[in-house]
Amino acid sequence: MEFQRILLLSIFSFSIFLLWDGWHRQNQPVPQQVIAASSTPAPSASLIADKTDRQPVGPVIVKKSALTGENITVTTDFFKAEISTAGGDITQIELLKQFDTIDKSKPFQLFRQDHEHTYIAQSGLLGPNLPTHNTIFTSEFKQYALIDGSDSIKIRMLSTDSSGSKVSKIFVFHKSSYIIDIEYVIENTSKEAIQSSAYFQLVRDNFEPVGSTKFVPTYTGPAVYTEKDKFNKIDFDSIEKNKAHMPVTADNGWVGMLQHYFVSAWIPAGNTKREFYDKKLDNGLYSVGLILPIDKIAPGQTGTISVPLYVGPAQSKLDDIAPGLGLTVDYGFLTIIAKPIFWLLSAIHGWVNNWGFAIIILTILIKLAFFPLSAASYRSMAKMRVVAPKLAKIKEQYSNDREKLNRAMMDLYKVEKINPLGGCLPVLIQIPVFISLYWSILASVEMRYAPFIGWITDLSRSDPYYVLPVIMGVSMFLQSKLNPIPPDPMQAKLMQIMPVAFSVIFFFFPAGLVLYSVVNNILSIAQQWYITRNIEAAVKGVAKI
């Protein structure tokens, strides 16, 4: 009976852990060390003119009605983007190599600015008479396209109201790349030196991405990385309550905005000193950004500053672009295990060229790796199954005396050489690996619209006909029949309900996750059935003698 309680507790704890972990990732990012006393760090007063007595603040977005401009369209093999002449903001980006969450015939739109949703990239200069995102720019053309044979395309926009300087804002889009270089060229036409800085920010509302579900919660919101403080999520609620834990200054790092499968991030190169900030804006908007100094520009001289902007899918290989950027693939606190698991999954996919079959093969390999532990667990369960009738008699005999009941049970375990924890501990040891595989499948953009067989055309979405969840429930039911019969009627009823409950829950899970669970259950049933049959046959053979 103790084993049954431990087994049920393990299953229940594992289920609660998955739900808690998902909720925690969505709503309560792990606090990081604060490197300054201020709860909401922001650029210094020397760099930002706009501040209040309460706290320093970063650049502020203006209302759409206060500033209007024309849209400049840019098309490459990876992007279709719109840049507004009002501030030179990037107001729309469609990822042409990624499909829309609902309609596969359309490209996925990450940046957008309309009455329903705002997610844009802004930048500007700080200093007297220098252009900000409140400045109108001009452009020679309204449409740009990457032509065959070209590696990049450049869009130059000129400021219309700079006094004492001539400022160009240049966008460089590259072939087969999700990186956009944003550069300012400042020509000092005055008689005094120009001392300035540049800010780069992402502005977004807390709108949940289309297709999100509370059953499989994922994180949406800002994030920042420095070598000292590492990867840190800054959720919208913390920004609104002025409780965001954010580094103030560093000579490295990036700031970005995350949502399931996708990320945008400003990633300054080199070890230039930078200031980080976050801000709750009007109209339900939030901004995160960084500020970089520009070398003093003498009269008649020209100064420049350039910062790359990554806008695209979150992938582990992003570490090649900037340290820590690969952490935007959110594997949770078990990243150290999940990363190599996904590496192996990718390697298998390169061989079979089907993510569904890759999941099946990886599940088999993991099952083989844990075969000895699983075997020990199933042997213990088989022995408990054999002595279940004796346990039932003991319970009936000592039903009114808890102390004698426990003593009699322990004596039986000792005589039969059974460790009541023997079936549970091996399972607990495997849980971190299975959780890591769970999140490596859930967080991988490669699963979007990845087909398996027949009706399953997208492993990142739930099974449209619920075939896999039903198979999952049947496999759990069959596995429960191989487990020891709980002497407690309440526990027995719970074991009967669990397959149905899990099937309903898995209706909403991505098909890739359900596929992994189905394969794991089928392999477990085969192994458990084989071990149980052998132990029961051995007991019957001894009984005949």
Offer a quick outline of the entry.
The chain is 35% helix and 25% strand. It is α+β, with helices and mostly antiparallel strands and 545 residues long.
Secondary structure elements and pairings:
Elements: H1 2-27, E1 71-75, E2 79-84, E3 90-99, E4 107-113, E5 118-126, E6 137-139, E7 143-145, E8 152-159, E9 165-174, E10 179-188, E11 194-205, E12 221-226, E13 230-233, H2 236-240, E14 249-250, E15 254-259, E16 262-266, E17 274-280, E18 285-297, E19 302-313, H3 335-352, H4 355-369, H5 371-386, H6 388-397, H7 402-416, H8 425-442, H9 467-482, H10 489-506, H11 511-544
Parallel strand pairs: 1-7
Antiparallel strand pairs: 1-2, 2-3, 3-4, 4-5, 5-11, 6-8, 8-9, 9-10, 10-19, 11-18, 12-13, 12-15, 14-17, 15-16, 16-19, 17-18
Unreliable residue runs: 1-65
Radius of gyration: 29 Å
The percentage of residues in β strands lies in 25-35%
- Overall 3D geometry? elongated
Which class of the largest domain in CATH terms? Mainly Beta
Protein model, in words:
- With 545 residues, the chain is of the alpha+beta class.
- The protein folds into two domains: 2-20 and 339-544, no CATH class; 31-330, Beta-galactosidase, Chain A, domain 5 (Distorted Sandwich), CATH 2.70.98.90.
- 35% of the residues lie in helices and 25% in strands.
- It has helices at 2-27, 236-240, 335-352, 355-369, 371-386, 388-397, 402-416, 425-442, 467-482, 489-506, 511-544; strands at residues 71-75, 79-84, 90-99, 107-113, 118-126, 137-139, 143-145, 152-159, 165-174, 179-188, 194-205, 221-226, 230-233, 249-250, 254-259, 262-266, 274-280, 285-297, 302-313.
- α3 packs across α4, α4 (355-369) packs parallel to α11 (511-544) and α9 (467-482) packs antiparallel against α10 (489-506).
- The longest helix is centred in the last third of the chain and has 34 residues, at 511-544.
- The two termini are 29 Å apart.
- The model is unreliable at 1-65 (pLDDT under 50).
